[in-house]
Amino acid sequence: MLKEGRVKAIKGSIEKLHPKHVELQDGTMLPCDVLVFGTGFKKSYDIFDRLVQARLRVEDDGMFLFRNMIPPGVPNLAFVGSEVSTFNNILTHALQAEWLARVLDGHVQLPNPMQMRADIEKEQAWKRSWMPATSARAAIWQLHMIPYHDRLVEDMGEQRLRKGMNKFAEAFAPYTAADYRSLFTGEPEASPHGKAQMRA
User: Comparing C-alpha atoms, which of 176, 41, 90 is closest to residue 80?
Assistant: First the structure.
């Protein structure tokens, strides 16, 4: 796209975010529908002003979010892929993206902020009761990847996925995006459960 001239690279630092554009420090205004903030291996929330950073409640063991995506204290903001870690990140990120798409199009209803905070506090207490303290504790779901995926799938009003009667495959074969093919390619309206009301 760069070679074809359909996209041009602009170097600069972001000064301020506006509803429909980004303002650079040199005063340049760039139209913007989606902003991707690639931070590399060290997380940084500096793209947000201090007020938003305070509402995100980043702690020594990470940022605890509803379903590892939604900060209840900051409306209209979601994190997909950046605040979760599993043994199959590609699949997890795809499930998060599908979940968020269904939230945005009204097929999944979020609980109110108080209910989301209660769910976050419960998860936080559980993780802190047994998981070693690390700066990424909030994001880690390796040993509990399948229950995390199940929760997202059930929020979407879909049946949790299992490998049928093959107990050997269930115990030893990893889940991949191909296992969830029908969820990714189907229409939410086709779900046997229709619109999902999420339980916190």
Answer: 90
Cα–Cα distance measured from residue 99 to residue 91, given in angstroms and rounded to the nearest whole number: 12
List CB contacts of 156: < 8 A, sequence separation 6 or more.
Answer: 98, 99, 102, 107, 108, 183, 188, 191, 196
Chain segment 139-192, per-residue pLDDT in tens: 999 999 999 999 999 999 998 888 777 888 877 888 888 888 888 887 655 554
Tell me the torsion sign for CA atoms 141, 146, 149, 154: negative
Half-sphere exposure of 52 (CA within 13 A, CB side): 14
Has this prediction a pTM greater than 0.85? no
- What is the 8-class DSSP label of residue 33? S
Q: Tokens 């929020």, residue?
A: 155
CB of 32 closer than 8 Å to CB of 10: no
